[in-house]
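Whether sequence alone determines local backbone shape is best considered at the level of individual chains. The sequence in question and its structure tokens are set out directly beneath this paragraph.

***
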Amino acid sequence: MNAAPLLELNDLAVRYGPVQALHGLNLVVHKGECVSLLGSNGAGKSTTLRAVSALVPGSGRILWRGGDLAGVPAHQLVRLGIGHCPEGRRVISRQSVLANLELGAYRRHDRAGISADLERCYALFPRLAERRSQLAGALSGGEQQMLAIARALMGRPELLMLDEPSLGLAPKLVGEMMAALAQLNGEGLTLLLVEQNAQAALEIADRGYVLEAGRLTLQGPAKQLLADPKLRAAYLGGS
């Protein structure tokens, strides 16, 4: 690809007190790509997304469209087009599905556009349409994950970062979730997908990176990583 990356991490390092969580990570995401960030628990995947979202401090450079994001607060990143769907869903359980979705558009004032995006989310996740008046806390785990993704979409991100969207879901729901993400990516949304489910993530990704203990150990096209013996042994149960 000749175009400058949409997101670029240069030598990103993050510490939690005495613990070094990331050691000089270099990563790029081009417009329109789906990039998977893989690794076991504690590898530094979530930390990477949190650093991009200005939720944890780090050193190195985080570039958005070639511009340095140093000092840009989290709420401004949303305006720039960076969406973050965090691990654990974090829906507002005592608010309705509709209220949660409307919260995702809290910085927008285009009522017609918000209404159109609500319908788009309902078309992508029909269960949310059926339950739009129900409290979010009454939804199943899979439905809450759908709601968390849809809420992030309501901010109209150019890049959507997702942290373990398949965590705790039944295999059938994992398939539905990944199909929805593949559809969004096919419609032009750029994705940075953090996953422990390497098989599911790489099946919809263009490229992947593998983190181990905060260090980058593998990277390449998704098909190449799926066939890599080291990755298969570590994450796919292969030999």
